[in-house]
Amino acid sequence: MDFSDHDLVKEIRAGSKLAFERLMRRYGRLVYRVAYGFTGDRESAMDVAQETFLKVHTRLGSWREGGHLKNWIARIAAHEGLNWARSVRRHPTCELDEALFLQPDPPQEERLLERETRDALHRSLSSLNPRQRLAVVLRYFQGMSTREIGAVLECSEGTARNILFRSLRKLHAVLAASGGILP
Amino acid sequence: MSECERLESTFEAYVAGELEEAALGPLLVHCRICEDCRRLLEIHRDLAGLASRTPEPDEADFDALEARVLGGLAGPAKWQAEEGAPPARLRTGWFPRVAAALAASVLLVVAGFAAGRAPWERTGATGDAGLKTGLIGAIRADAASNHKLEDVEDSRFTYSNVSFRRATGDRLALDFDVTTHVQLVEPARSELVRDVLAQALLNPSSAGARLRAIALAAGDLEPKLKEALLFAMRRDESLAVRLEALTMLSDRLSDPDVKSAVLATLREDDSVQMRLLALDSLAAHSVDRGRIREAIQEKARPGDEALLVRLAQVEKRL
What residues of chain A lie within 8 A of the CB of B41, using their CB? Predict the structure, then answer.
């Protein structure tokens, strides 16, 4: 039987862990993808997903029945993703990638260059404000339409489109200023 | 208008994934000659590529995640377990204590109003004295550190379900949700009032709330509120809101940012009514007629004739 979000929430509020498992199964991939958009690595994204679901469980009492549970969960995931990003900034760690120290043959060199570009782009996402970052994550990592993004950000479709475009411009400016290499 | 500006809406639609294949041609042709736009296109494609390489966890990973989460719930019960019992928040940590104190404060405010006078009048206190180190203290401190509209957008606190009305003296009664429901009365020019108003101006869900926010914000051209009002005048989807913002800002044309935004409105707004009002405001503030004419004629648009007739009338009057 396919329970509606509303039914699941009702059951969870009554103490059902099974209902919460179902809810996690339903929104696990959404939460993971939003989290990955913030962390850029799988393990941290799973940690953020875990924190997100713990928060979801704690806060279900404040969820309003008329709202969309999916959007509410996506916002919590984004909030946890931002917290993760802030804690990483406060406590930076440097992980050595042994592959970078190996003498690269040309194809490997290309792969490393591609990876550096990708990492720089991911790091540049931290220059966006929370709304912009969430819009970008939802658009690219979750494949949402601007209508859906607007629903999550609680703004119109037009505003969501505008936020996305301004985000790209900001990334452009940041990458250009850093020559594509961000610390 | 440059080619980049002309193609901006096409670009926006492309980034949003809403552009028909047939309409893509001019954009791609332009990107061949414009390095800036080409780079923007590359970033869009790189982001799509980056996302497509997101490693997907398998079912076993999600099983493990669920087990970890459920394990994390294994401590004190978050919800009352009895069937049919209303949910109860776990009373640990700082937040429930603050929320409880806040609830008490809200009751105090409500009780004060019910008694026909505001609680601070009765007690001589602000009604939230006990909470200054708690949630309200935190949101006030956050509001005080937000100097620009961008800071307001980045704020740790998002105010929803906002309503405001004038209270006695130069104060506003605020009512909003921020993690929990908050109801308090603040000096009209406090940073918290400014933050709440600025966020209300950016929130597209209620044009009525934006109109009320404009009416309350217009007397206070502090930087972030000014930015929010300029944003409302230039970008709001509702013509009523844009007109209201322009009307309010018309008295502030001595401010260079306002003057330049009103000129941009005259040049670019889609509504002839907005452009006429912008023209009247600029003319009333003795802005150079040449600049006004240039703004009207920069790009041919419907309504230009009416604007030029109005400009001629203004010039004749002077």
Answer: none
Give the position of tokens 């490693």. B55
Contact: B48, A140; criterion CB under 8 Å? yes
For chain A, what is the radius of gyration of the CA atoms? 19
Phi, psi (deg, nearest 5) at residue B17: 75, 25
CA angle A91, A95, A100 (to 5 degrees): 150
Residues, chain B: 318
Residue-wise pLDDT for B249-278, tens only, equals 988 888 999 999 999 998 888 888 888 889
Is the predicted ipTM greater than 0.90, yes or no? no
Half-sphere exposure of B88 (CA within 13 A, CB side): 11
Is B237–A159 a contact, with Cβ atoms under 8 angstroms apart?
yes
Q: What is the pLDDT of residues A26-82, one digit of tens each?
A: 999 999 999 999 888 899 999 999 999 999 998 888 787 777 899 899 989 988 988
Give CA B60 to chain center in angstroms. 42
Could A139 and B203 be called an inter-chain contact, meaning their C-beta atoms sit closer than 8 Å?
A: no
Site from B14, B35, B45, B54 to mutate, A interface, most A CB atoms within 10 angstroms? B54
Backbone angles phi, psi at A53, to 5 degrees: -70, -35
Question: What distance in Å separates residue B228's CA from the closest CA in chain A?
Answer: 14
Half-sphere exposure in the Cβ direction for B152 (13 Å, CA): 24
Does residue A84 sit in helix, strand or coil?
helix
Residue type, B136: I
Half-sphere exposure of A43 (CA within 13 A, CB side): 0
| SS (HEC) of chain B | CCHHHHCHHHHHHHHCCCCCHHHHHHHHHHHHHCHHHHHHHHHHHHHHHHHHCCCCCCHHHHHHHHHHHHHHCCCCCCCCCCCCCCCCCCCCCHHHHHHHHHHHHHHHHHHHHHCCCCHHHHHCCCCCHHHCCCHHHHHHHHHHHCCCHHHHHCCCCCCEEEEEEEECCCEEEEEEEECEEEEEEEECCCHHHHHHHHHHHHCCCCHHHHHHHHHHHCCCCCHHHHHHHHHHHHHCCCHHHHHHHHHHHHHHCCCHHHHHHHHHHHHHCCCHHHHHHHHHHHHHCCCCHHHHHHHHHCCCCCCHHHHHHHHHHHHHHC
